[in-house]
Amino acid sequence: MRKRPLDVLFLVPARKGSKRFEGKNLEMFDGMPLWLGAMHQCIHAAFTLKLQPWEYKIVIATDDPSIERLITPRCALTTAEYLAFHEDIHVLVVLTDMTNYAEALREIASAREEVPSRKGYPGYMYSDLASLYERTGRLHDSKGSITQIPILTMPNDDINHPIPDLTGYITEGQLVLSRELHTNGIYPPFNVPRSLSRLMKDGIGEGKTRSDHPNLQSQLYAAYSNVQSVRSLASVIGEEELSDIDRHYLEFGEHFEKDFLGQGVEEDRSIDETLDIGWEVISHLPETELHRVTEDEINEHYAPAGL
Q1: Is 268 helix (H, G, I), strand (E, B) or coil?
Q2: Using 50, 70 and 90 to split pLDDT, how confident is the model at 62?
Q3: Which class for 141: exposed (0-12), middle (13-18), buried (19 or more C-beta within 10 A)?
Q4: Three-state SS at 168
Q5: Residue 191 and residue 186: Cα distance in Å, rounded?
Q6: What's the Rg (C-alpha) of the chain?
Q7: CB 286 within 8 A of CB 307
Q8: How confident is the model at residue 60 (pLDDT cuts 50, 70, 90)?
Q9: Residues 6+ apart with CB under 8 A from 196
């Protein structure tokens, strides 16, 4: 007889000091489903920390029936909607792991003998995922809101797999993690070229963050994308055969990952500090390589680093 985990809705302590919202805040984690060991750790932490219960956790095991695994995120979102739109609470919902959810959806579709689509997943998986991801936002007559962060594992690290592919179409952005950066000790190991935000342009710039933010982020992104090409070239012909410009890009790439991406787990870096570090990093490139920032921005922020 298998050991079943505790399968209930329970309270766990929430982190305080949120800077995003005013008033009441709540974080709700939907662990659907978790491996048994991870689940027992979550339950143990929930009942040993004994702080203010402002965090809900809905958990289900990987060996629970598929239909229950499909219902779990909907239970979490229904609870979030009540708290947000009836109790005027700002709710953050974290769904993990959506890959396991999609696997349960495939199992149900297979049992019903439905016509499969890519990799055996049902053809309606896009609309099914959208029915979860789009249960977020605000209502005109409510003070509360729902912010949703779905987390998924890319099977075989394939971003074109149906689960991450369809998720990327629906959500407003994505943060992709890199195994290579993680192996190199970079934290957080974000894969910058594959990560994106469709809302960033509306939240940066003069009067929001800083006037040089849009151009600097564009320049950093373009330069780091070129680093990947230079590294591929260096792996074929060797670094000693690279041009001086290519060597500058390699140096820039190392500082970008170590100084700009890399942060301490407890580090609280402001946006101004991040932008200043961005200028320090981009200064490892010659001024002739800076095509996406203005002359005034270069004169104010650019300081060549030993060029």
Answers
A1: coil
A2: confident
A3: exposed
A4: helix
A5: 11
A6: 23
A7: yes
A8: confident
A9: 173, 174
Distances (CA, A) of 292 to 143, 215, 219, 222, 260: 40, 6, 5, 9, 19
Q: How far is CA 27 from CA 140, 149, 302, in A?
A: 22, 11, 41
Q: Give how far the C-alpha of residue 30 lies from the chain's centroid of Cα atoms, to the nearest Å.
A: 16
Determine the pLDDT at residue 30.
Answer: 58
What average pLDDT does this structure show over 12-18? 32
pTM of the model: 0.78
- Cα separation values, 15 from 18, 27, 46, 55, 293, Å: 8, 8, 13, 8, 39
Q: Is pLDDT of 41 > 60?
A: no
Q: Which residue has the tokens 């709700």?
A: 28
Q: Which numeric CATH code is attached to 9-171? A: 3.40.50.12240
CA 227, CA 184: separation in Å to the nearest integer? 16
The domains of the chain are located at 9-171, 176-307
pLDDT in tens, 123-182: 999 999 999 999 999 999 888 889 898 999 998 889 999 999 999 999 989 999 999 999
Q: Are strands 173-174 and 196-197 parallel, antiparallel or unpaired?
A: antiparallel
CATH architecture of 176-307: Orthogonal Bundle (1.10)
DSSP string, 234-250: HHHH-GGGS-HHHHHHH
Q: Is there a contact between 45 and 12 (Cβ–Cβ < 8 Å)? A: yes
Instruction: Round to whole Å and give the CA distance between 195 and 25.
Output: 27
Token pair of 38 as six digits? 């991870």
Measured CA to CA, the distance from residue 149 to residue 17 in angstroms comes to 19
**Is residue 293 over pLDDT 90?**
yes
